[in-house]
Amino acid sequence: MMNQEQRNSIFYTSILYICGFMLFLEWLYPLQEITDTNNIMIFILYGIFCFSLSLFQIKWWISFILKGTALFIIIDSLFLDPTFLSPMWFEQLFLDISYNVQALFAQTWYDLTPLFRSVLFLLLIWLMSYLLHYWFVVMKRILLFVLLTFIYLTILDTFTAYNGGFAIFRTFIVAFIALGIANFMKELDRESIPFTWVKKSPDWILPLILTVLFSSVVGFAAPKFDPQWPDPVPFITSTAENAGSSGNNSLIQKVGYGEDDSRLGGSFVQDYTPVFQATAEQNHYWRIETKDVYTGKGWEFSGSPHYIPFEKIPPMYDDSVDSQKLQATVKFLGNHSFDKLLQPYGFKELDPKIAEAFVDARSEAIQLRNDDYELMDNMETYTINYDYPTFDITALREASGQADPYDSYLQLPDSLPERVGELAQEITADKENRYDKAKAIEQYFSSNGFTYQTTEVPVPEKHQDYVDQFLFESQAGYCDNFSTSMVVLLRTLDIPARWAKGFTGGELIDKQSGNNLYEVTNANAHSWVEVYFPEIGWVPFEPTQGFSNLADFQTSIDNTGMQTDDEQEQQQQEEQELPEQEEQAKEQPEVEPAGASPEEIKVSMRWEYIIIPIILVVIMVYIGYRTRYHWQTWFLKRKVSSNWNARNYQIAYHYLLKLLAHNGNGKLPDETLREYAMKIDRKYETNEMRKLTYHYEELLYREQNEQAPKQELAQLWKNLIKRILA
Which of 426, 524, 534, 667 is 20 to 30 A from residue 640's alpha carbon, by CA? Predict the structure, then answer.
């Protein structure tokens, strides 16, 4: 049975731990308001569950099983359709985790699926339940976490829509009560005052609580001065927008769809604000417009806008291109809207036809207008019918380059350095047709020193060409750099190409009957390349590292079984191309979230069945080595707990000296054990080392062990070990 001192200690340390959990909740409450996190109450309940297990000090292996089981149940209820723990359930979970492991190694953080992000979040809550128990209960060092909580709430209140007024009030009350209790308990420990002196009544703690509550209420209710400092948000925003005069001439922007592309370059920060949701059968680009004039700094339109009825423009593709009739519904979120239609490739009409479609002949942007020719730019939702094309690789290779009707898409500035054209010739030297040349340039960016990054991206100097700088100097950038460079390289080869912009397909958030629901954010704003093929039309290409082409391609097969030598050679080339593309995808450092779902990567995952287990084994070995003292401590604890005798006490004390030496606190040759114990106690603000050393000397020199308080010594040893391993 526990004595009075133990009961009192547990009572007050439990109050401390509960205060820590209440502070941790202040980190969770704003997430549903400032992020796209749903079902926040589930995460809070999981936090209560994990903190409760840590509070009651359940055996570690029981706690591990319970927390892990609860985690799997939550993931199953939120994301997985198959029966819980069935083979299909494990297969779906493995596919999702494998997909996210690739994204982690590629450092494409925005590609992580909701399931994997939720797992990481739940693991973080699990970890915090242990860390807060150690900080609040064992070490009683809570000031850092209190300060971080105040800073966190202040930043959210200043820079987001979250109102942190009442959260600060709650945090103030909880934090100062916890600080008072923690410092009182540390003082008792420092002065070696037994806890039996402290009554489990509110007599001594009542003044603390009343003082904190009184000061909090007065501070909350008292009249306050208006803000004396100006709002920092406009200043910081304007500074970020105009920060173009740094040493590397970089410009910091915010990601999202924009109209002005006349000056490209510079860094940007991600913005995951949802823009619209799309219900569609498959994932594809959402095209808005194209631009045709490259200035050396960016893109502009040729001529003035000229809108004509959609029915009067020539089709984008020839009738020979296979297509599939599909339908998609777009629903804008928040206050987002566009005055131009979000169109998949092969747009035909609205369903129902609530507006007339007019196309800008220069950019192929589509606007919707009513019967009075008024622009309909505030539509919250619309449904589109379209014939989604599938391009035949054989036909693309056979397309003739003669009589191109799109010579305007060969424009290049006179200032373009000659070495850009020379590079294009070098890349395509062994290619004979337009498709292979385009693929060679597209794949050129997957290696050769190029990297995808959104920070520290330079802006060209006054007399510097944007493409030339990217190809030969920085070799680092994002979609605008890659797509613009490919268009320019193609044009130097007299291949018509243009710059397309819009959004990638977004993130799959739900599967409906026959359709999928995708959520597209500002971070999905994207640019890519369109190349013209005679008798086929405009075909999209994707040169940006980490992004996969969302268009459909197929290779025609001769059903007769009879092939000429040329046809056999051509088929062999096509068969060789697919492994090259798969190998190329493996080398990509970025993975577009909309480019491939876990189901789609299933066919190309054979290598992962070998690589991933090897990586996991290496990680486990590394973690085991790094935490070897934790494991040794665990085994030694079990040994001394079951049989605390003189021999085991010496082993435990020697291990303690070894652990201290490993942490850089070894005993000096001229130090006595008592001097060394006092030094260690000063470092860890305790008196445990002196007590352990005293009984060790009694055992060593006087062989007095029978009267030693074995349980107390075992607990002192465990407490000191915990402090050292922290």
Answer: 667
Over its C-alpha atoms, the chain yields an Rg (Å, rounded) of 33
Tell me the pairing of strands 381-392 and 552-554: parallel
Give how far Cα 446 sits from Cα of 420, 505, 542, 580, Å: 18, 21, 11, 12
Give the mean pLDDT of the chain: 78
Count the alpha carbons within 13 Å of 253 in the hemisphere toward its beta carbon.
20
Tokens of residue 630, six digits: 């934790």
Distances (CA, A) of 316 to 201, 319, 320: 82, 10, 12
Backbone angles phi, psi at 213, to 5 degrees: -65, -45
SS3 21: helix
pTM: 0.48
The string over 505-515, giving b where at least 16 C-beta atoms fall within 10 Å of a residue's C-beta and e elsewhere, is: bbbbeeeeeeb
436: left (phi over 0), alpha (psi -120 to 50) or beta: alpha
Closest of 309, 285, 295, 287 to residue 360, by C-alpha: 309
N-terminal to C-terminal alpha carbon distance within the chain: 29
Per DSSP bridges, beta strands 451-452 and 366-369 are: unpaired
194 against 681, higher pLDDT? 681
For the chain, give every domain's residue range: 4-221, 273-556+567-595, 627-725
Q: How many residues does the chain have?
A: 726
List, in order, residues 6 or more apart from 109 with CB less than 8 Å away.
Answer: 103
d(CA 231, CA 219) in angstroms, rounded, equals: 22
CA 281 to each of CA 193, 267, 540: distance values in angstroms, whole numbers, following the listed order: 71, 34, 20
* Tokens representing residue 641 in the block: 């707990």
**DSSP run (H or E) holding 27:** helix 4-28
pLDDT tier at 615, thresholds 50, 70, 90: low
For 431-477, the pLDDT digits (tens) are 989 999 999 999 999 888 899 888 888 888 888 999 999 999 989 99
State mean pLDDT over 333-362: 84
Which amino acid type is present at position 214? F
pLDDT band at 564 (very low <50, low <70, confident <90, very high): very low
Q: What is the 3-state secondary structure (H, E, C) of 449-502?
A: CCEECCCCCECCCCCCCHHHHHHHHHCEECHHHHHHHHHHHHHHCCCCEEEEEE
Q: How many helices (H) and strands (E) does the chain have?
A: 22, 20
Edge-first strand listing for the sheet containing 366-369: 307-309, 356-360, 366-369
Beta strand 476-477 with 451-452 is: parallel
- Quick check: 11 pLDDT over 60? yes
Given this model, what pLDDT does residue 36 score?
66
Give the tens place of pLDDT for each residue, 300-344.
988 777 788 888 777 888 888 899 999 999 998 877 778 888 899
Per-residue pLDDT, 445: 92
160 vs 52 pLDDT, higher one: 52
Residue 522: DSSP 8-state: G
3.90.1010.10, 3.40.50.300, 3.10.620.30, 1.10.10.10: which CATH number matches 273-556+567-595? 3.10.620.30
Q: What is the pLDDT of residues 292-306, one digit of tens each?
A: 999 999 999 887 777
Mean pLDDT of 37-51: 87
Residues with Cβ within 8 Å of 255's Cβ and at least 6 positions away in sequence, in order, are 268, 269, 270, 271, 454, 522, 523, 525
Pairing, β 252-254 against β 267-269: parallel
Strand residues in 333-450 grouped as ranges (E)? 347-350, 356-360, 366-369, 381-392
Contact 424, 434 (CB under 8 A): no
Token code pair at residue 667: 């005993």
Whether the Cβ atoms of residue 462 and residue 479 lie closer than 8 Å to each other: no
- Residue 356 has a pLDDT of 83
> Where do we find the tokens 């690789």?
393
* Confidence (pLDDT) at 578: 41
Token pair belonging to 177: 């009560």
